Amino acid sequence: MLKLAPIVLFVYNRPNHTKRTIEYLRNNNLANLSELFIFSDSAKNTTDKNKVNEVRSIIKNISGFKKVEIVKRKKNYGLSKNIICGINKIFKTYKSAIILEDDIETSKYFLIFMNKALLKYEKNKNIWHISGWNYPIEQKVKKKIKDEIFFWKIMNCWGWATWRNRWKYYKKNPNELIKNWNKEKIKKFNLEGNYNFWMQVQNNYKKISNTWAIFWMTTIFEKNGYCLNPVSSYVFNSGNDNSGENTSDIIDYSSSLNSKLIKNWSKFDKNFTHIINHIIESNFKKKKLLTILKSKFYKYM
After folding, report:
1. pLDDT at residue 299, as a whole number
2. 199-223: per-residue pLDDT in tens?
3. What's the average model confidence in pLDDT over 127-145?
4. For residue 106, which of 231, 300, 259 has the smallest C-alpha distance?
């Protein structure tokens, strides 16, 4: 029988989003066989307190999972610290984990996809990260793509998974990165100059932001690791409505949830340029996205 990874959910002050995220998860195949761990951050101010209590009221009586364990922070950690500490805690016990935040709606096949990917690529040390989401690709283009998954350097954190023996290398140190990365390395990290991911590191260095995910991406990059993505997304982010701590309504990366299981699991291959080029053309070259390079979006990873 497939050994299932625990689901790790991080929540704060969005009761409606949290409720939808749990409902979608509960409708997943394998949900009733999966353990769910929820890390509920404490309110950072009196304004958030009622919403935090409302979220905690929702999560206290969750059913439909093999086990539910809730960690209620007694003081406010903030999103970055809550996620880093939560994942570290889970990996003291488990070898792999599936991680979500409170605004991720999942396909009913999300857990199957994640667990199978974790099992299939566990021993392949090239693969560091499993993503449930992918940038939207035009439907007429997608029909031409025979592959169902692909590998690249970009880390997406909207519903993802990894292994303990990869996550142990996670390091959040913007000062060190600013000091040691040269222009050539930064350009490569920035998808050969197509997207300014590096600005997120700079914003953390300047104390404009305090985020976590960009440093998982830099860790993977430093280790020459790759991320596995489905061509069609198994998740939808409902939080791009300006409702969250680190979300914005600037960008809409909406796509329909994948309602099919992966039939052909590709062997690891660095040469997926045919898919990557479609993603770049569909998302990073659009004129409306060029203005985002200077926008506040970069503080959100």
Report:
1. 37
2. 999 999 999 999 999 999 999 999 9
3. 87
4. 259
For residue 190 the two structure tokens come to 């920035």
Using CA atoms, how far apart are residues 279 and 242, in angstroms rounded to an integer?
A: 25
- 60: number of CA atoms within 13 Å, CB side? 7
The single-letter code of the amino acid at 38 is: I
Here the tokens at position 108 are 């009913």
Say if CB 284 and CB 192 are below 8 A apart.
Answer: no
Residue with tokens 């290398």: 169
Terminal C-alpha separation, the chain: 36
Burial label for 182, CB within 10 Å (0-12, 13-18, 19+), is exposed
User: How far apart are the C-alpha atoms of 59 and 54, rounded to whole Å?
Assistant: 9
247-279 pLDDT, tens digit per residue, is: 444 455 566 788 999 998 988 887 787 787 777
Counting every residue, how long is the chain?
A: 301
Backbone phi and psi for residue 207, each to the nearest 5 degrees, phi listed first: 70, 20
**33 DSSP assignment:** G
Dihedral sign for Cα 288, 270, 230, 33, please.
negative
Q: Which residues are bridge partners to 39 per DSSP? A: 10, 71
Q: Residue 242 in 3-state DSSP?
A: coil
HEC profile of 45-94: CHHHHHHHHHHHHHHCCCCCCCEEEEEECCCCCCHHHHHHHHHHHHCCCC
DSSP β-ladder status, 160-163 and 127-131? antiparallel
Q: Which residue has the tokens 């350009």?
A: 187
